[in-house]
UniProtKB/TrEMBL annotation:
Residue ranges annotated for the ABC transmembrane type-1 domain, each copy included: 79-287
This protein's name: ABC transporter permease
Family as reported in the entry's similarity comment: Belongs to the binding-protein-dependent transport system permease family. CysTW subfamily.
Compartments where located: Cell membrane
Amino acid sequence: MTVSNPPESKQRTSKRLKWLEPFALLFPSGFWLVSFLLVPTIFIFIQSLVPLGKTEFGIDNYLRVFEYVGGNFIYLTVVWRSLLYAVITTGFCLILGFPVAYWLAVIAPKRWRNILLLLFVLPLWTSSLLRSYAWITILRPTGVLNTFLNFIGLSGINVLNKAEGVIIGMVYTYLPYMVLVLYTSLERLDLRLLEAAADLGANSKQTFWQITVPQVSSGIIAGTALVSISSFSDYINPQLLGGPGSRTIASIIELQFLGASSNRGFGSAISMVLILAVTIVIALLIKYGDRRVVSDS
């Protein structure tokens, strides 16, 4: 008994369908990204090329970002302030979050780790707007913090409507994200290497910098990128906890779209600057983060 081969046309159809399988798998996520990310970004870019009161395309809106008035680069100062807030927030989140993540992943009893981690990230279940209003209640001159300081005999402090208040709110907002990312890396920490380093005479400082940090460097990079991107584009904390001198790039974009003297073209140009900055950070993360992971493994 001989088994006949399938017709050649069916073989070609089968190969063609197999070739289309990757596209079919990518279609749902690809359609979502194109529809709600790529297309809106293209519209924003096109709108950024149309100066206010004109119909022809140009780069006047982008040149306005470098506007120099009264001895000061108005909008570059705002961009620099946003970047400075992001750097300071990321630094504090890393310094404060690493010991917490290390304790949760290595020192805390295993049966309590999930519960402790849940309790730490529980504030994320609350609206960021409500959390910022809570900090207003704490930091205002007659708030909880100053009331407590006066009760123990210390003079009150005034950080509301200042850069310090913005930093406090941003660190509180993004610290859980840093802890979560670092926790996932520290959970895979090879404790045998730490024991071997101790047996070979390494002190705690040498063990930390030469054994622990290289193993979790990918988590440090990912957490730093996540917090820096989020804090750079933060709107709520600078708007509620900062004063007029604490405006960030997100506040300027909001004013250009919804303010009394709105200029959607210029707002779109600033939005494209923000998108470009975020894209650069993500590209650096993909390039050097993956390289770091490969070298560590």
